[in-house]
Write a structure and sequence with these properties.
This protein is α+β, with helices and mostly antiparallel strands. The protein has 5 domains: 75 residues, Beta Barrel (OB fold (Dihydrolipoamide Acetyltransferase, E2P)), CATH 2.40.50; 66 residues, OB fold (Dihydrolipoamide Acetyltransferase, E2P) (Beta Barrel), CATH 2.40.50; 327 residues, no CATH class; 54 residues, no CATH class; 119 residues, Nucleic acid-binding proteins (OB fold (Dihydrolipoamide Acetyltransferase, E2P)), CATH 2.40.50. The strands form 9 sheets. It has a 5-stranded antiparallel beta sheet with strand order 3-2-1-4-5. Strands 8-7-6-9-10 form a 5-stranded antiparallel beta sheet, covered by helices on one side. The two termini are 40 Å apart.
Amino acid sequence: MTGRQKKKAGGQLKGMAGTLSVHRDGYGFVTPAGGGEDIFIPARYLRENLHGDKVEVIVQGESPRGKREGRIVRTTERGVQRVTGLFSWSRRGGSIKPDDERLPSILIPASAYGNARDGEVVVAELTSYPEDRKPAFGRIIEILGSPDDPQVEVLTIIRKFDLPFEFPDAVLKFAKGVPETLSDADLQGRNDLRGNTTVTIDGETARDFDDAVSIRREGRNFRLWVSIADVAHYVTPGSPIDREAYIRGTSVYFPDRCIPMLPEELSNGICSLNPDVDRLTMTAEMLFDPDGEMLASSFYPSIIRSCARLTYTIVSRIIEHDDSEAKAAHSLLVSDLMLMKELSAALAAMRSARGSIDFDLPEAELVIGLSGAAEAILKAERNLAHKVIESFMLAANEAVALHLTGHDVPTLYRIHELPDQDKLAALAEYLRPLGYDLPAEERSIRPEDIRNLLAASSGKPEERLVNRMLLRSMKQARYAAENLGHFGLAAPCYTHFTSPIRRYPDLVVHRLLKWLHQQSGAAGRGKLKGSPFPGFPASLADIGEHTSKRERVAMEAERDIVELKKVQFMVKKIGEEFSGVVSGVSAFGFFVELADVFVEGLVHVTTLEHDSYRFVEAEMRLIGERSGVSYRIGDPVRVVVAAASPERRQIEFTLAGVVASARAPGEEYKKVPVQGKKPEGWKSRFKPVGEAAERPARSGKTPRRDSGGRGGRKRR
């Protein structure tokens, strides 16, 4: 607790505990630790706090918008110990402008510069925090280099999100000691599936293959084998490699590289289900009827030999496009692939009937050149082959969860809780002008309500907006020891089993599954003997909380570098003209998605020519007061790239032909007269390129499809 906070609190007040999130404009919100509505904190009360601080807050009233407003009375834990940013030096001293714009500048005394030079990206350790109107101070502990170096950009994001990057020597030594081939002892107690026609289906750039599939028709039914790399055979609980995998929690995928959870000796070697070699696996064997309902299942250690490494593109050519050349090249597999297509359709129909939600927002695919810069930004393809594998992985995950729960084995669930009803009510008000309705407030919303809304907007100009707003209203999926069900999948019981090479929770589930299998037919927890790993089952809650946090950090880092590459690509396009469509409208402008480049940017209302524009919320439209010109979702437009700010990850457009047209970095717009009352949320657009306006808080968190060759599989 700082000195000023002690004075404010009088040493007595006990506030509500929570975590502070600071907006780049200076104000903040405290998210209560016990859940509930965020508490707004005005900027004037945040002079002694930083983003991420654990605090206690007292509610003092409501803001003009009806939100709870409060003041921080105690700081219990600092959220930031290190910052990464651009170092600048002057005669008055040194400072760091953090890469995270939610943090203020950090002052660096001359004695703490080290060898850092003006304009370099550095990492600093905070030595003091803001207090009594004094700023934060730090000392430089690492020099990353020039901000224009693509390698430094990657390192900056790695340091910014505190991603474990290099494996400790003990882990590398352990990994190098793992045998590269199988021994006779490895095969003991395993079902031999080497006689099955088993294939892997992944992206073109994939290097680690952790799942393989095999199928057979039995009468009118389908028998499916989903075999997953037996990472638990090599990574034992408490070993150096296990401890490091737990710290990382997940692999992190950047456009041009992967920060793996496991060293290459395992992830790309003995644990990778490469073709034409024997590999150890854990198999989920499932029998489905023609309607996709599971009739039986079994789970066991196995050994497989993949007969082909297929890609989504090749499989799509066979099952979706009837490509004669692809079918001839893989003639021995065509019948099995067509059977997989048939089963996948049945599974998809079954999930749809029970209300499963499928957010199918397109994602960007970056083509990275040798220099590390983006050479193209395309819309990533999600073809039928992606959907086939996704269906099989969802089925295996759910089957494993049901199996463990049915045997009363405490496990790590993948849960997705019910949406917040207040957020859904606000969403209903927002979508009503577009002609969409959510159920009345007297009953809780169901997955099929969301699915029906998505179906109603499918193919319409506002489809992406509806998807994004729905996503914003829903909670994030997470790992937990308590089974709360999976709302998005409409599944009462779900876990993650299919990716132990890159997700620690899957490794935990494998250990539980193997432990249960070793019990020789035990029917309940009372008959189970021993323990799958130290601390079980009490440690499951901590594992779930930790791995959920690591997943969120990974997603933020991945999203950050993709947005950086997008903006850097558009910096080179400043002054160029593109076609696009309006993808979102607000009181202070409208967003445009380009047709030829998969990026989105803002046309601010202050750049619209010689008119005053008002936002008609009932129609989701901007209308010129005098001209009558209007802009709404789906309208085609021609725009000029006016500014691109790598620092703020933002792109700005102007309409083609307006006075406030393109400008070079560092230059200012010519001001366009805007008459009438400025709309709520208005903010001057006439700032240097590094001061691009904030994107309105209307876009949601898009569920990332696992990259690095894992395209098409969402983080369910």
